[in-house]
């Protein structure tokens, strides 16, 4: 190991030649300033401001999902989508939430937790079912351990189908919930 260190100190920093520019067909496409996410986000911001006068807080409730929908929900906060800039944020307590986002087929042992979370959320509030499992039971439909959707446990305002739904679809569903 000492030999490698001494060799690199004697030789100095060796860097590769700068890479050749990418061919035009491989170069990353320039992002439009008014792409679909920005248009959806601006519409979402105006609805949030109209209804709340501030940001909208979401409480996520996992009722036994496979975590596919959670990955897409988490993508809403990454630098590409960054829905926080439009006034949307997730909170840890249902007492601070304006809406519940529920994923997964409601497992029988999680029904009580979902009901308690729903009761702890201040009224008026929205309940949004995200993913096929939350909307209709998904691939777990007919199982002895789950319900056929969140609507069997708590009233649902908006359903966002997909397995898992893309972040754009979740954003459209949130916009639909706010306009309802």
UniProtKB/TrEMBL annotation:
**Gene Ontology MF: a single term:** metal ion binding
Task: Write the lineage as a comma-separated list.
Answer: Bacteria, Candidatus Eiseniibacteriota
Any idea what this protein is called?
Answer: Hydrogenase
Tell me the InterPro entries matching this sequence: Complex_I_20kDa-like (IPR052375), NADH_UbQ_OxRdtase-like_20kDa (IPR006137)
Highest taxon of source: Bacteria
What does the similarity note say?
Belongs to the complex I 20 kDa subunit family.
**A Pfam family that the UniProt record links to this protein:** Oxidored_q6
Q: Which UniProt keywords apply?
A: 4Fe-4S, Iron, Iron-sulfur, Metal-binding
- So which cofactors does this thing need? [4Fe-4S] cluster
* Matches recorded under Gene3D superfamilies: 3.40.50.12280
Domain NADH:ubiquinone oxidoreductase-like 20kDa subunit stretches: 66-176
């Amino acid at each position: 190991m000492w030999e490698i260190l001494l060799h690199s100190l004697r030789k100095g920093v060796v860097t590769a030649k700068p890479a050749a520019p990418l061919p035009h067909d491989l170069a990353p496409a320039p992002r439009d300033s008014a792409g679909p996410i920005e248009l959806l986000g601006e519409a979402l911001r105006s609805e949030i401001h109209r209804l709340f006068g501030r940001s909208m807080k979401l409480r996520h409730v996992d009722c036994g999902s496979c975590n596919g929908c959670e990955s897409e929900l988490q993508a809403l906060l990454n630098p590409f989508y960054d829905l926080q800039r439009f006034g949307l944020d997730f909170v840890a307590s249902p007492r601070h939430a304006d809406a519940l986002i529920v994923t997964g087929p409601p497992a029988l042992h999680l029904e009580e937790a979902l009901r308690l979370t729903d009761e702890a959320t201040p009224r008026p509030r929205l309940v949004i079912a995200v993913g096929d499992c939350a909307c209709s039971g998904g691939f777990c439909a007919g199982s002895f351990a789950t319900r056929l959707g969140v609507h069997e446990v708590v009233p649902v305002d908006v359903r966002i189908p997909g397995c898992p739904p893309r972040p754009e679809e979740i954003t459209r569903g949130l916009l639909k919930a706010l306009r309802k």
